[in-house]
UniProtKB/TrEMBL annotation:
<keyword id="KW-0408">Iron</keyword>
<protein>
    <submittedName>
        <fullName>Globin</fullName>
    </submittedName>
</protein>
<keyword id="KW-0349">Heme</keyword>
<dbReference type="InterPro" id="IPR044399">
    <property type="entry name" value="Mb-like_M"/>
</dbReference>
<keyword id="KW-0813">Transport</keyword>
<dbReference type="InterPro" id="IPR012292">
    <property type="entry name" value="Globin/Proto"/>
</dbReference>
<dbReference type="GO" id="GO:0019825">
    <property type="term" value="F:oxygen binding"/>
</dbReference>
<dbReference type="InterPro" id="IPR002336">
    <property type="entry name" value="Erythrocruorin"/>
</dbReference>
<dbReference type="InterPro" id="IPR000971">
    <property type="entry name" value="Globin"/>
</dbReference>
<comment type="similarity">
    <text>Belongs to the globin family.</text>
</comment>
<dbReference type="GO" id="GO:0005576">
    <property type="term" value="C:extracellular region"/>
</dbReference>
<dbReference type="GO" id="GO:0005344">
    <property type="term" value="F:oxygen carrier activity"/>
</dbReference>
<keyword id="KW-0479">Metal-binding</keyword>
<dbReference type="InterPro" id="IPR009050">
    <property type="entry name" value="Globin-like_sf"/>
</dbReference>
<feature type="domain" description="Globin">
    <location>
        <begin position="9"/>
        <end position="149"/>
    </location>
</feature>
<dbReference type="Pfam" id="PF00042">
    <property type="entry name" value="Globin"/>
</dbReference>
<dbReference type="GO" id="GO:0020037">
    <property type="term" value="F:heme binding"/>
</dbReference>
Length: 150
């Protein structure tokens, strides 16, 4: 069982760090999704449009890029509101939790996304900022898990 993280309080410095890093990685959606699915291949079947296809082959397709773009667009919405409208960011994440609950996505799968993404951040040279990113993921998962539990 995956525990719901406590709701963090963000410092201005953390928000600035997260948003600065985000500007450097938001164009890496395909890499983020591919890393997640490579690290946790049990999640690949969730993506029905890729059923029966090799992940390495699918990575270069427009469909994979579209799926990655959907994830990035959602996170862009959260990032735009982070620090100035955390309630608005939470509303986006509540919707994410609600829609993914209907798809049968578990807390463990969201936790795996966190793990894969923070690992990739380290590989991209942003590992020194993991304290801020962990606060962000605590926020994301607190809201999403609350929606999954509803």
């Amino acid at each position: 069982m995956v525990a719901t993280p406590a709701m963090p309080t963000f410092t201005d410095a953390q928000v600035a760090t997260i948003k600065g890093d985000w500007n450097n990685i938001k164009d890496k959606g395909v890499d983020i999704l591919f890393h997640f699915l490579t690290k946790f291949p049990g999640n690949y079947p969730m993506f029905k449009k890729f059923a029966g296809k090799d992940l390495a082959t699918v990575k270069g397709t427009p469909e994979f890029a579209d799926q990655a773009k959907a994830i990035i667009n959602l996170l862009n919405g959260v990032m735009d509101k982070l620090g100035s409208d955390n309630n608005g960011a939470a509303a986006i994440l509540t919707n994410l939790g609600t829609t993914h609950k209907a798809k049968g996505v578990s807390k463990e799968q969201f936790q795996q996304f966190r793990e894969a993404t923070t690992e990739l951040l380290g590989q991209l040279g942003l590992g020194g900022n993991l304290g801020a990113w962990n606060a962000l993921f605590d926020f994301l998962l607190n809201v999403v898990f609350t929606a999954l539990d509803a």
